[in-house]
């Protein structure tokens, strides 16, 4: 009896699967477009040919949300605190301020009651957390 030849399995596993990942990347680098998969929203709500839905969507334009830049450096720091950044190093990295300038801003925020400082016992010693107060939250979003 002849032994079955399963060498084609190796061809599928070691060539076809990696090539199916590599070929679309190479084509997109060359600028050749192919059918891209639809997003979830396009699959759930396909464009309707009904004129009622097209008319109503054209009548009410979508409001544009324009993020506003903070006016001062203290508002920039207060914004980082309100977004959940708790540590000095992270605030410094996100805002790009130097040590002394950030220290003076944080002292002013603490003196004005817009921020509070919590000392916690961490694994490697004391941790200093910077948290906004309700007054700081209202000040930033007003």
Q: How would you characterize this protein structure?
A:
Helix 4 (73-82) packs across helix 6 (99-111). The chain has a two-stranded antiparallel ribbon. The protein has helices spanning 7-30, 40-44, 51-59, 73-82, 88-95, 99-111, 134-141, and strands spanning 115-122, 125-132. It is mainly alpha-helical.
Descriptors:
mainly alpha; 142 residues; two-stranded antiparallel sheet; elongated
Strand order of the largest sheet: 1-2
Order of helices and strands: HHHHHHEEH
Structural class: mainly alpha
Radius of gyration: 28 Å
The percent range for helix content is 40-55%
Mean pLDDT across every amino acid position: 78
Question: What does the main sheet amount to?
Answer: 2 strands, antiparallel
Overall 3D geometry?
Answer: elongated
How many individual β-strands?
2
Assembly form of the protein: single chain
Helical segment tally?
A: 7
Spans with pLDDT under 50 lasting ≥5 residues? none
End-to-end Cα distance, whole Å, is 85 Å
What fraction of the residues are assigned to beta strands by DSSP? 5-15%
Overview in brief:
With 142 residues, the protein is mostly helical. The protein is 54% helix and 11% strand.
Helix-strand blueprint:
Layout lengths: L6 H24 L9 H5 L6 H9 L13 H10 L5 H8 L3 H13 L3 E8 L2 E8 L1 H8 L1
Antiparallel strand pairs: 1-2
């Amino acid at each position: 009896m002849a032994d079955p030849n399963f060498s084609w399995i190796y061809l599928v596993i070691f060539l076809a699967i990696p090539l199916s990942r590599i070929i679309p990347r190479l084509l997109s680098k060359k600028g050749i477009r192919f059918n891209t998969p639809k997003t979830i929203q396009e699959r759930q709500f396909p464009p309707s040919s009904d004129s009622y839905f097209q008319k109503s969507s054209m009548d009410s334009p979508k409001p544009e949300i324009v993020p506003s830049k903070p006016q001062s450096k203290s508002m920039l720091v207060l914004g980082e605190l309100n977004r959940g950044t708790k540590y000095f190093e992270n605030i410094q990295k996100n805002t790009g301020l130097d040590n002394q300038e950030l220290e003076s801003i944080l002292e002013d925020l603490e003196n004005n009651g817009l921020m509070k400082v919590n000392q916690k016992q961490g694994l490697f010693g004391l941790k200093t957390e910077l948290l906004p107060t309700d007054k700081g939250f209202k000040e930033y979003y007003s």
